[in-house]
Amino acid sequence: MISVRNLSKHYGTTIAVNDITFDVQKGEILGFLGPNGAGKTTTMKILTCYMPPTAGTVTVEGKDVMDSSLEVRSQIGYLPEQNPLYLDMDVVDYLHFAAELRGVPKEQIKARTKKMVELCGLKDVFSRPIGQLSKGFRQRVGLAQAMIHDPQILILDEPTSGLDPNQIVEIRHLIQELGRQKTVILSTHILSEVQATCNRAIIINQGKIVADGSLEQLQAAFHGMERITMEIKAPKDGCIDKLRAIQHVQKASETSTSGDLKRFVLETEKGQDLREQIYDLCVREGWKLLELYRERTTLEDVFRQLTKVETN
Amino acid sequence: MKNVLTIYFKEMKSYFNSPVAYIFITVFLLFTGWFFSSNFFLQGQASVWGALTVIPLILVFFIPAITMRSVAEEKKSGTIELLVTMPTRDMEIILGKFFAALTLLVIALLFTLTYVITASSLGNLDTGPTFCGYIGLVLMGSTYLAVGLFASSLTENQIIAYIIGWAIVFVFFMLDKVLMFAPGPLVSSLEYLSTEYHFNSLARGVIDTRDVIYYLSMTTFALILAGRALESRKW
Q1: B129-159 pLDDT, tens digit each
Q2: Residues A210 and A234 in one domain
Q3: Residue of chain B with shortest Cα separation from A48
Q4: What does the alpha-carbon distance between residue A97 and residue A86 come to, in Å, rounded to a whole number?
Q5: CB distance B78–A48 less than 8 Å?
Q6: Are B64 and B165 in contact (CB under 8 A)?
Q7: Which of A23, A183, A309, B91 is the most buried (most CB within 10 A)?
Q8: What CA–CA distance (Å, rounded) separates A21 from A7?
Q9: Are residues A84 and A183 in the same domain?
Q10: Predicted confidence (pLDDT) per residue in B48-107, tens digit
Q11: Residue A241 is part of which domain span?
């Protein structure tokens, strides 16, 4: 559906995007991950025909973003970074305005606006000026504006920034719903967002793609170490030395202590499951084991590993 | 064309939903009203000449103030990114904004018709020059507006937009007043480029196609420049 070939963008001497290539299929929710300044926004600006690439091509359903810009733009719904809005307009006027410009037929504008108001929960603020709305509502207005013409492709630059946790859950839910029939590309630097909404992630760092694949693929490909978190009740000090003595433990640290309650995080070598040994140790020492769990490689680890290696 | 209208109505709403339009019209009428009435009764003539000939100068200062916001504000707030990623041409955006600003100017000029009505009720007003003078004002106003829009699309700072717009308009306004310093062979072409020279010719009561063509081509040229300036993100 979208295919990006050898895309590069230079701003003067700085290289924002450096020769990236990827495809996005219909029905995919693609998460664009990367540290600040990695080139996520720049890539999105090129996809939405805001600026031309320095080199390379982007085609949407076989149409080039530069040559058939108008046709491509009419298929895309875009929520830019910072969610710019006309603060002096009422929500309803703004949605009508967006619908007209995005080419919704006149007789459908009312119905589409109503649908968006329902979908994005804008009923209470329908006729208020956008400037008076809270950030969460503004974000919803931005999303409504991007979806009003029922586009095939949604490009969302940090769609959940500035929302409270409840709203974040709602918006993610909304994106997942949409992703069933549409193509969604969203950028974020919040990893849990990708885990919660996307079925594929591209990690980009310093303008280059460093990883591309489904979440499972990424986690499988980049094993980190494993981490064990435990909480015990033990009257004596010096537990930590005994934990360190267990084979394959690379690092142990006490994260909190309150009276007899002690909490430890152990990092172990790859592929070693030390839970049994820990249990045995506790039994031997007479510690009361209150909590014990193992964390596998998270996307966060993958992300940190990939973006750190590149910067060093 | 449809997009031009959509943008036009949005701009009109934002002029009239904010104090911009009202302040502009009020202050504009205060100035022109003063110039109309201050020597109207001294002259003892039913004429709006006093107001009509000073409006070009007033417009030099007022029009960049109408247009300074148009594009600069959108650049500053980032809404321009939304606007240009919608399926509209850059030129449609410029035209929508231009016609909205032109409408505001025409409304302000319509209010000055009260001077015309006052004058004609007191004596025999020379309708030909007055009518042509108004046409001249609208044409000249269009040119100023187009230049102002161009200035506004160069920057995201409204004050810079105002100053650039004013400076360009002022140079064209002054051209026929500094002819004595110009080298001989250049005089006639400089005079032709001057905005007020053509206005004076229209205000004499003759609609000369040369003057109309001058204003229309200046306006078109400035609008194209404004469109190019908006496109400059792609360079």
Answers
A1: 888 989 999 999 999 999 999 999 999 999 9
A2: no
A3: B85
A4: 11
A5: no
A6: yes
A7: A183
A8: 6
A9: yes
A10: 777 788 889 999 999 999 999 999 999 999 999 999 999 999 999 999 999 999 999 999
A11: 226-296
